[in-house]
Design a protein that fits this description.
By secondary structure, the protein is α/β, with parallel strands linked by helices. The chain is 49% helix and 13% strand. The chain folds into three domains: 129 residues, Response regulator (Rossmann fold); 174 residues, P-loop containing nucleotide triphosphate hydrolases (Rossmann fold, 3-Layer(aba) Sandwich), CATH 3.40.50.300; 136 residues, Helicase, Ruva Protein, domain 3 (Orthogonal Bundle). It is built from 20 helices and 14 strands.
Length: 458
């Protein structure tokens, strides 16, 4: 689609010159206006990306046109032209939102260059807006799935704390979404355009984590062949996520406490003090209070981190959110794997609702992804979740991963196998294909059922 430009000038020769300059080889649709009053009427009636206007015109001057046009459409670009250019006039024009200010005499190359520069700027501006929207979609509240009362309360806390500078401690079992909450806090704060930097304290050896956090100078230790910035410096003006903070050594906890209190640190191998403005969000899957009692975590650091505590519920504590999560993950992995999967049947969903998900949301997501990969149907069914015996260990281990008892779940499996066998007229090869398992696995299942006293037709 051609980019729309409005030329405003009371001199026909200048109109003709600008029209020729812009239409000769560029993808622009150019319209003309003889004065500022006519231009404003056109801008009100239809959208233009760019207006090129002379400053000195009767009735409505170019400067007045600039101010009015920006009121009508704040995103419109304005380039002003004058034969009487002064620094003061240029400054005034830019202050009121002009994209550029050109003095006469003009040449075609100059006009083409300025107009091209404007549209490149708008493309970058659009891309930046798109990226921000995409980040909000991925990391804002919309990315956190849940309508349970527990999750509603979490949303309220996140919304309130995001506006502040307070340090946040997020606690919860593995797979509950601690990092997702941390990102939601950052991308809904006034630091959203600044860096979000993550450090996994459990993944770094004690000898390296200080350098990772605070940076080091060249030659500070063996292997330090060049100077490097630490995570605090990289996150300056933004947010630093300290993931699994409970794994940090006591000696390093002292240095972290100083940064939180004084907002300053030293790099490894450099005695100079560096100032930093970083918002800290820490996460842990341990009970940090208990770690303090056992002497594994400093009490003063705990209280410094625990300004705003957020405790994430396990998935079994918010089971009413499972259908929403299942729907979300089906859409996600159907798209990722180019599958036409539109939903899940009632029996399979009931099956998932009975499970207590020790791996929480992460385990549920992996389960839906696996089922989506192997499914050849439009709707996920129970056999898609039984294929890899993903829940077999939990069934037999008696670890309370299931609501109800093992007999009921074995009955679900038995009923599904018998149903498919009946549909295939007892053909075990076809039944195995329908169930997504091998004939040998099906044979073993039938044998196991018989050995456990479950009646299986021959």
């Amino acid at each position: 689609m051609k980019k729309k430009i409005l030329i405003v000038d009371d001199e026909p020769l200048m109109q003709e010159f600008l029209l020729e300059a812009l239409e000769r080889r560029n993808p622009y649709k150019v319209e003309l206006a003889e004065n500022g009053k006519e231009a404003l009427k056109k801008i009100k009636e239809k959208p233009y990306q760019l207006v090129i206007s002379d400053i000195r015109m009767p009735d409505v001057s170019g400067m007045e046109l600039l101010k009015e046009a920006k009121t009508i459409d704040p995103g419109i670009g304005i380039i002003l032209i004058t034969a009487y250019g002064t620094v003061q006039l240029a400054v005034q024009a830019m202050k009121h939102g002009a994209f550029d200010f050109i003095t006469k005499p003009l040449n075609i190359d100059q006009i083409e260059m300025v107009v091209s520069k404007f549209f490149k700027f708008k493309e970058l501006e659009y891309e930046n807006t798109y990226l921000k929207d995409e980040i909000n979609r991925q990391f804002g509240f919309a990315s956190i799935i849940g309508r349970s009362e527990k999750m509603k309360r979490i949303f309220e806390i996140v919304e309130m704390v995001a506006r502040s500078k307070a340090t946040v401690l997020i606690q919860g079992a593995s797979g509950t979404g601690k990092e997702l909450i941390a990102k939601a806090i950052h991308y809904n704060s006034d630091r959203r355009d600044k860096p979000f930097v993550k450090t996994n304290c459990a993944a770094l050896p004690d000898g390296l984590i200080e350098s990772e956090l605070f940076g080091h100078e060249k030659g500070a230790f063996t292997g330090a062949i060049r100077a490097a910035k630490g995570r605090f410096e990289l996150a300056d003006s933004g947010t630093l996520l300290l993931d699994e903070i409970s794994e940090m050594s006591l000696s390093l906890q002292v240095k972290l406490l100083r940064v939180l209190q004084e907002k300053e640190f030293e790099k490894v191998g450099n005695p100079e003090t560096f100032q930093v403005d970083v918002r800290i969000v820490a996460t842990t899957n341990r009970d940090l209070k208990e770690e303090v009692r056992q002497g594994n975590f400093r009490e003063d650091l705990y209280y410094r981190l625990n300004v705003v505590p957020i405790e994430l519920p396990t998935l079994r504590e918010r089971k009413e959110d499972i259908p929403l999560l299942v729907e979300h993950f089906i859409q996600k992995y159907a798209k990722d794997n180019h599958k036409n999967i539109t939903g899940i049947d009632k029996e399979a969903l009931e099956f998932l609702m009975k499970y207590n998900w020790p791996g929480n949301v992460r385990e549920l997501e992996n389960t839906i992804e696996r089922a989506s990969v192997i499914s050849k149907e439009q709707v996920l069914k129970l056999q898609h979740f039984l294929t890899f015996n993903a829940f077999e260990k939990d069934w037999q281990g008696g670890n309370n991963a299931w609501e109800g008892n093992t007999k009921n779940l074995r009955e679900i499996e038995r009923r599904k196998i018998l149903e498919v066998l009946n549909e295939t007229g007892g053909n075990r090869t076809r039944a195995a294909v329908e169930l997504g398992i091998s004939v040998r696995t099906l044979r073993n299942k039938l044998k196991e059922f018989r050995e456990n006293g479950i009646e299986i037709p021959s």
